[in-house]
Design goal:
Nucleotidase that shows phosphatase activity on nucleoside 5'-monophosphates. The chain is of the alpha/beta class. Helix content is 28%, strand content 25%.
Length: 261
């Protein structure tokens, strides 16, 4: 099996090392793991592509490259430059440092990398590690992902739904913020919504008197509705959420047609 790996935390991120290990176990001794990851952190860029300026790419080691671009850029670079058209069998994005559950999905570069792979017609999985008080003192904050990552990916490959639709299905996996030994299992969930948790800005004045704005997020441990991703994670479960890039509100199409046509 040939696997392409990317992330949004950057080429030197510890979560990427965890994912490379997972990918190597999935690919097997006769397989190939190719890494194309951002040269610098790209958290929060979503599905951005560098459409208006070029992306520099550098070979660091055999099958390991760094690109000055977003995770989606890295997927494109991997498919059309690094692999020279030899398409991978699977694209893995992560393991992100922090959850990509609920509204975080919409901002996540980790999700953006998997989404671009799906738009290119490839099986793709995004993986993220929820952080919390119970994981901070572990030898590795990625313990749950490291312990359960390979089995989770393998289960998705063997038993998951992999369609051939125009907006191909991909998977968003979040590991709970606890030790791997304490993980209770896996739950298939919908994307949740944290009420009263929003991104905002925090202004600061520099020594030169200029104002700068820092983007800041809200609390990450507020419960979401039962059956959703963050709720499952905070209960100690791995969440698996099937997703598509199609943003159409299909559930309201009939009402909108009746109102407007």
């Amino acid at each position: 099996m040939r696997i392409l790996v990317t992330n949004d935390d950057g080429i030197n991120a510890p979560g990427l090392k965890v994912l490379e290990t997972i990918a190597a176990e999935i690919a097997g001794p006769q397989g190939e793991v190719w890494v194309v990851a951002p040269a610098f952190e790209q958290s929060g860029v979503g599905h951005c592509i560098s459409y208006t300026h070029p992306t520099m790419i550098a070979k660091l080691e055999t099958r390991r490259y760094a690109a000055e671009g977003s995770p989606a850029d890295c997927v494109l670079a991997g498919l059309y430059d690094v692999l020279q058209g030899a398409r991978p069998d699977l694209v893995l994005s992560g393991v992100n440092r922090g959850n990509n559950a609920a509204e975080n999905v919409l901002y996540s570069g980790t999700i953006g990398g998997a989404m671009e792979a799906a738009l290119q017609g490839l099986p793709a999985i995004a993986l993220s590690q929820y952080m919390g008080p119970l994981s901070e003192d572990l030898p590795s904050i990625f313990d749950a992902a490291a312990v359960h990552g390979t089995a989770t990916v393998r289960r998705l490959l063997e038993r998951g739904i992999w369609d051939q639709g125009d907006y191909r299905l991909f998977y968003n996996v979040n590991f709970p913020p606890i030790a791997g030994a304490d993980v209770k299992g896996m739950k298939v969930t919908t994307q949740g919504y944290r009420k009263d948790t929003f991104f905002g800005v925090e202004p600061h004045i520099s020594p030169s008197g200029r104002k700068f704005l820092w983007i800041k997020g809200g609390p990450q441990h507020l419960p979401t509705a039962p059956g959703t991703d963050a709720a499952a994670n905070l209960e100690g479960y791995i969440s698996v959420t099937p997703m598509r890039a199609d943003l159409t509100a299909h559930d309201d199409m009939t009402r909108v047609r009746e109102a407007l046509e």
